[in-house]
What does this fold into?
Amino acid sequence: MNTLFGLIKSEYRMMIGRRGPWLAYGVVFLFHSLAILQMGESSASPLAALGPWWAAGEILYILNLFMPLIAGISAADRLARDRSLKVRELQRGAPLPQGVLLAGKFLGVLAAALTPNLFFISGIAAWAVLAGIQPALFFPSLLAGFAAITIPAFAFVIAFSLACPLVIPIRVYQVLLTGYWFWGNYLPPDVFPTLNGTLLTPAGVYALQGFFGGRVGINMMAAYTAGEAVVNIAILLTAVFAVLALASRFLAWRERES
It folds into this structure.
């Protein structure tokens, strides 16, 4: 267990120190901050007029438009970089199962990707509460939304971003991921064939509607139940475990063949 925590800490430090993701997050955060500040100026806005639970879910769902995508693109080179820097040779000499090494990398990358988002929503919560726009319950509501909407989406994308570049070029994967993210989460299924609206939708719409009473679109009322949201999250986390297990087996096979 101490070894796993050490791996997580090492990967976290390596990932959190990269400037590119911070710059990308910062640009998107600035855009969202301006939008949220404008929302708070009007007494009829969702942020000011509706309860903290609904507002928290809405904000976190909107953040998922770009944030998991940035995390996935940033994480796509993690295993390939280990190979190019000969880190794999050092890890191979350690008496650790391949699954433990991959789990440490996944959890470290996930924690590093979530850290800027946690800082951002904490700042939004502090501003909304201190400005009197939302009650103190807004902060725990955001934390609940972070667990239900943000973490599953990030975990899903990062798991695939670690595994898929093992078999396809990194740049190709990053392009495919970008296309998939918008196709599979935001295209209306009645307009174009898409995974949006199925239980494999990772952007958080099930949790938004099922847990937070949110809506997508101007006139759409909550369509998914809390039970469906639980099933959606369970399927996403199952996919995460399955993808990491396949990646672990593939890495073990490649080492035996090399």
